[in-house]
Amino acid sequence: MQSRVTTPRTLLAARRQAFGPGMAEPPPPILRSWERCAALGLDFGQRPRVEPLGSAEMRAAFDRSEALRQTCRPEIEALHAEAQATGSLVILTDADGLILDTLGSDAFAGRAAQVALRPGVPWSESLTGTNAIGTALVERRPAEVRGAEHYFEPHRILSCAAMPILGADGTVLGVLDLTGPAAIHQGHALGLVGLAVAAIEHRLLDTVPTGCEVLRLHRDAGLLGTPREGVLVFEGRRLVGANRHGLALLGLSWGDLGTEQAGGHGGDTAPGPLSLRDATGAPLYGRLQGVPARRRSTVETARQNPAALIPEGPILDPATEKLLARAVRLIDAGIPVVVEGETGTGKEVFARAAHAACARAQKPFVAVNCAALPETLIEAELFGYEPGAFTGAARHGAKGLLRQAEGGLLFLDEIGDMPLSLQSRLLRALQEREVLPVGGTRPIPVDFALICATHRDLSRMVEEGAFRADLFYRIAPYRVRLAPLRERPDRLALVRGLWARSDGPARGVSLSPDCEAALAEAEWPGNLRQLAACLKALAALAEAGEVLGPADLPEGVACRPAPAPVPRREEAGRLDVLAQDAMRAALAAHGGNVSRAARSLGISRSTLYRRCLTERAGV
Questions:
Q1: Given CB 3.0 to 4.6 Å as the disulfide criterion, which of 338, 375, 452, 600 pairs with 412?
Q2: What is the Cα–Cα distance from 225 to 614, expressed in whole angstroms?
Q3: Domain that holds residue 594
Q4: Both ends of the chain: CA-CA distance in Å?
Q5: Where do the H-state alpha helices sit in 338-456?
Q6: pTM of the full structure
Q7: Which GO terms describe its molecular function (predicted)?
Q8: CA gap 466, 422 in Å, rounded
Q9: Mean pLDDT estimate for the chain
Q10: How far apart are CA 8 and CA 37, in angstroms?
């Protein structure tokens, strides 16, 4: 039979005979895939011969893909609700089509497992025929395969939509897929997957590589900073990275990576807002981040001035810059640092700057919000777990956040909210430099630098028994306090620096001097975070070219009352004489009646009586 199925047309004829004459002709990508499958000698009438990896191979494959799994986790969890509602599965694979994770409808997961759609099974086109995962990998573009469009007959129970996840250099990192029963048409599936992949690829370009500049652009200034913006990475004038949106906006392709761009950015433009035009002359709004390679090309240069690595304006004042330099020296010496400060003072920004300037800058920065993790899961999240360690655990286990920070820096935010029961385990891990995964029997060595942060008073918590004293002394040999915004002397410069990096200047929006002064003098209980959010809101609401004044400030941004002027000594003396004259005149006008004189002056009888006695006594 296989010898007769050699072209898409003969294959289509055979499938019409098998499935009925009503089968429509598939789109060109499906026909191309069928042709490739037929050329490989696959028999569509048979069940594909695929076997899951062995336990050792599976563990090695999952370890290689741990970074991808963590990067995709927010989008997979966001799609989880959609998958449950539609009886579908969210599927993540590696670059070879090996299924790493499935999440969604338990009922459909059982049906999918009957056709080997489960973790540890490869779904490349060469093994499992035409399917959304495998075809998307071959075509390097989104793919949708419904029902009978699958090459192998057993797979026609599926309707799949998949999209490759591309790295900044165009390399395929994996595939995100949404698969459901073929009987239910899910016309929105490919759109949801596309939005999720765009967010993942945008997150991969969050940081500016050392010695590079990152250009972020879009036709709509309001979409800068969102997953829909275009991103281009330049090393000098050479384009070294991008996302799909960035290439499309400038009419480029992945083949242009590594080439010099005549209109590219090689350090001639200062970081900040830009007004650009595409090849057709249409306006583009952009923002340039990073420092030109010729001015800062090595980590050592950054270590000499770590505060310059902070991208969002003058976050640190000179005093805190000195603290940052000290923190970097401590980290390089293997000594932990605790950063204290109110919510929004920039504790994580400080930690990231320290990481970027220390000797571990080329290794991971792993941030953990101890207050955000459920108490029942925080142990597994930090230390990892073995397969089957608890109900709901992934089949292949997980490394844990401490092991993900291997060689780099672990940032434990809100350490004061860590449960007491877990503090002893963390202390042991720090002392022994090894972790024991949940359900494991063999400790695993770890190596990372540590920065902790908190808005609480840890020393008082130790006194009250709410925080372990031994852990406190282990993590806090050096403590950094970040001042709240109201105590900083550079508020006006801070307002101007943050505004320059907002969307406002790119659209010709400016702040009047009175508005700048009001922002600088306002009470900011949320500190830098609140100020930055306020400036973003002002920029978003303003019309192009508008000059904003104090009246444009949002309600609740209350200015601090101006302090009452302190009179000079000679002025105070003159005021005292005038007061005494007024009281004598009032007493004379009321015939010496103290009560009536006091009422006429608007003061109390005791005050008038006391001042009169003081005058008579010559004091």
A1: 452
A2: 69
A3: 569-616
A4: 122
A5: 347-357, 378-383, 401-404, 420-432
A6: 0.49
A7: ATP binding; sequence-specific DNA binding
A8: 12
A9: 80
A10: 9
